[in-house]
Amino acid sequence: MAQERRIVDAMVEGEPIKRYKKTILGKVYVTALDPFSDEPEGVILEGNPANPAELDTQIIEIWDERQDLFFTRINKRHFDAGRLIELESLPEPELSPNEISEDELDVVLSLRFMAFRARLKSFTTEAPVFRLLNRARELEKSEKIIKHIEERLSTIQLEGFELPQILEKDG
Q1: CB count, 10 Å around CB of 65?
Q2: Are residues 109 and 83 in the same domain?
Q3: Under 8 Å CB-to-CB from 38, ≥6 apart: which residues?
Q4: Domain range for residue 140?
Q5: What is the DSSP letter of 162?
């Protein structure tokens, strides 16, 4: 049911007028009007409210005043018990230092060397460093730049493996 509701929400154009979010760890069964048929439908909101990655399964979007009035009246017991709240705005997704566009690759490669090294060290996964290396080769950047990118790529790849420590014997 919840999956069908998310598909319907994706088909509706524009922005919803309101969003409601569940506040408890358990599942919450709510009733809402279908935006296309105006028929009541049950929706199960689930997921951990403390985990923003699961936000799409925890909220329900309301598209017009009639649906909102129906939703707030029919689910009054959830609002009174504090299981549902109105979501003022969606939290802004945090940008990862590993997310970089093609244009940003060129900007990074055009930075002065010290700024370039600092930006290169901010990457924590292989993908953006590998893309940066390929772009540097395409633009025929200096060997110094390419060498530093290759070193960073090697460092990131080695971080995935813990090398066994050699224990010295007391003797």
Answers
A1: 10
A2: no
A3: 66
A4: 102-159
A5: P
